[in-house]
Amino acid sequence: NDHLMHHMFTRLAEHKLVGISSGTKEPQPLKNPRLIVTLLAKGIPDCPDKLLYVRSFELRERSIREREPKVYTDGISFGGMDLFPEVIDASTATRERFEKDLDRMIDRFARDYWEHNSLPTR
Q1: What pLDDT, in 10s, does the model give residues 92-116?
Q2: Distance of alpha carbon 9 from the chain centroid
Q3: pLDDT tens for residues 25-77?
Q4: Which residues are within 8 A (CB) of 106 and not within 5 positions of it... i.e. 6 or more apart?
Q5: Do the Cβ atoms of 112 and 21 come closer than 8 Å?
């Protein structure tokens, strides 16, 4: 929802990682990395007090083959967690839970990103 989207961009900005929202027109979208965040809680028809819950955080980038530079595909450069749902109690599916899960995923990504992309100290 809009609240979680705003929360995500705020958290990314706190880590000095700001992206382009999905509503923005990009001149060359195939060349830009895409951050795909999934938080999905879906009801189970026979268990009204349970939900299937999936969360994932992936950075996808264009990958070009070295031997065939005209052939490319999407590559996952971060994340790629299995999208196997877990069963949670419907009563625990709160905004606070989703925010905390989102924060954990973003914090992990930011830590890895800055560890691998920071400038060496002199």
Answers
A1: 999 999 999 999 999 988 888 888 8
A2: 11
A3: 544 445 677 788 888 999 999 999 999 999 888 887 777 777 777 766 666 66
A4: 8, 11, 12, 15, 57
A5: no
> Could you tell me which of 44, 65, 39, 33 has the C-alpha nearest to residue 54?
39
CA–CA dist 105, 99 (Å, integer)? 10
Mapped to the 3 state alphabet, what secondary structure does 66-90 carry? CCCCCCEEEEEEECCCCCCCEEEEH
Reading the block at residue 62, the tokens are 């264009």
Give the whole-angstrom CA distance, residue 53 versus residue 40.
Answer: 6
- CB within 8 Å of 9: residues ≥ 6 apart: 18, 19, 21
Residue 51 CB neighbours (<10 A)? 20
The terminus-to-terminus CA distance of the chain in angstroms comes to 44
